[in-house]
Structure prediction request, 695 residues.
Amino acid sequence: MDSPCNWNKAVPWKIVVALLVSITTVLVTFPSDTTGSDVSQWYQDLCSYKWEAIDRDSKVKYTLKLCDSSPNTECGAGSAVCARNLTSQKNQSVGDLSLKKVTESSVIDFNSTEKCPGSSGTNVQSSISFQCGKTMGTPEFVTVAQCVHYFEWRTYAACKNNKYKPDKEVPCYVFDTDGKKHDLNPLIKLTDGYLVDDSDDEVHFYINICRSLNRPGSLCPAGSAACLTTSKGSFSMGLPTTQLELESSDRLRLRYEEAPDSTPDFCSGHTPAVTITFICPSRRQEGTDPKMTAKSNCRYEVEWVTEYACHRDYLESHNCTLTSKQHDINIDLTHLTLGSTDAPYMAEAKSSDGKDNYFYYLNVCGEIKAGECGGDPHYVSACQVKATGDQSKKIAGRYHNQTLRYSDGDLTLIYPDGSRCSSGFQRMTIINFECNKTAGNDGRGSPVFAGETDCTYYFDWQTASACVKEEEEDLLCRVSQYKHYDLSPLTRYPESESAQNWEAVDANASKSDKMRFYVNVCHKVLQQGATSTCPEDAAICAVGKEKVVSLGKFLTSPTKRNDSNDIRLVYTEGDECRKDMKVKSIMILKCKPGDLESAPIMRHMSSDGCVYEFEWYTAAACVMSRTVGDNCKVEDPQAGFSFDLSPLSKPGGGFYNLSNGDYDYFLNVCGSVTAAKCPLKAGVCQVDQRHVLSY
Prediction:
């Protein structure tokens, strides 16, 4: 059916339970408002933006307009909630802005004049339930029942006393063309910020994501989301003004810009601006820091390779497992789930003033049915009990809306929906799991209380269940030992149609029975052509006329010894070479600057055929570094690089002329452009009949 109002679903049982629970829960209350100005209302911070939510099951995209001042939806200026059927591409308003009602239980209802088909007396409408959150948050579609479209929204706007209200915040999520959600809200910091990796040791550049910085004790100007700190002081380099944008399916962009009247003198008249590009990596990897990639006249370019830029379905699960098919990693925490008669996991902690003791009782992906917190019928997985005095009990989180997330190497389990704090925020528990194959308690380990901040409880938990299965340990193709090395540029992936395995050059062809050696790096060999008969899990494979031999699997990350500059990559568990012995291959990678094309060399095979030794000269084995030069020259003696672009510079303000359509582009290299209409000292100038732009 094309009409969204006909998508009547049975209300999921957990939604029914949540609604029943809310009846007996003290809600955050606000004055009822059916008319009045949006400017004075508690939700006014949300009015500046058009918000989106998606019903993935029915393929319906919703656009929300909360206020008269909000951007219009595709259903017109009078529509508050517009439902677009992504199959038929038809729009239907499912809530009118003029029929808005704000209830005392922080719910905004948008009624309409359209009758619900098959239901007498009921109109098509939308209902948004707001709950206290720590960021601006995002609206989440819940369900459709009897032509009522339900949404839930956790946002700081719904908290009491402006507890988590920042100077400025913008929406921090986008949907891609496939309807998948990319959400950077987990990166938002309520206090402090991120220090950008920059080659200039004389300055510090701090950013927050989608939100102004809150750095107690710093001199960063209020409202700034990007702050430059030098010996001369701290300066705002940009305010959060525009919401997160989708650049492509794996790249997101966020832009901060300073007010024109707040430009520091050292910016040479340019308005400070920062562009942050978030890149979803092509494969699982450890977290990285944001890196400065370009800067000139207070214009900054920052790149951040982070898995948080990937779509949310890739990062999260709402059960206790992450699978290779969906998440590119295999993790199963169900082994930690306790039975109905098992005593819950317990952690002990003292209050911040040291006067009170607390016990925290936990289960993993299940409810607590035994002990002091047992008996609560509403999916309690985390519970706080005061050890002395009144021994009061607080629910610290429930599992029915839990999130298991693996991103940038961190595995976390999040329990929301606990008892409410004075701000209205519902208590939450976040457990950070770490791999420990020798953990006690039969490998299960136990939680350790790590701290509490604003009614959110943090635990660290070392357990064997958090360890990635061996065949998935291609997560690490890097070496970090004071310096950083990355072998991933050598990896060949099956997703690329042009990708081919590396073929090693045999330095001892006469001794190897004319075998051909095919190699991949930190990955299985691609099943193609000559390697189509290689064992599926082989990372290096020898192919002859009459036999195929696995020379090893990728089961351990590359390493580097302190007494050598070489990278060592060992593949083990190949085919059996003699009784109780399997083939292994040792790959020694040596730095060769600028060369990512040379193939590995097979140097030696042991007399019993159990050990193969390879040597590979490649730029991937060189230390990762950033070097800044001057006078149009840059060199890195350690890596052997030296670049001199001065021969490309045009003297006397000369330029290269590149024309495209109605525009002329004048460019010089390491020098200014002297051309008609171009500003003084411009290095690149765009000219048309109306404007002149220089960079």
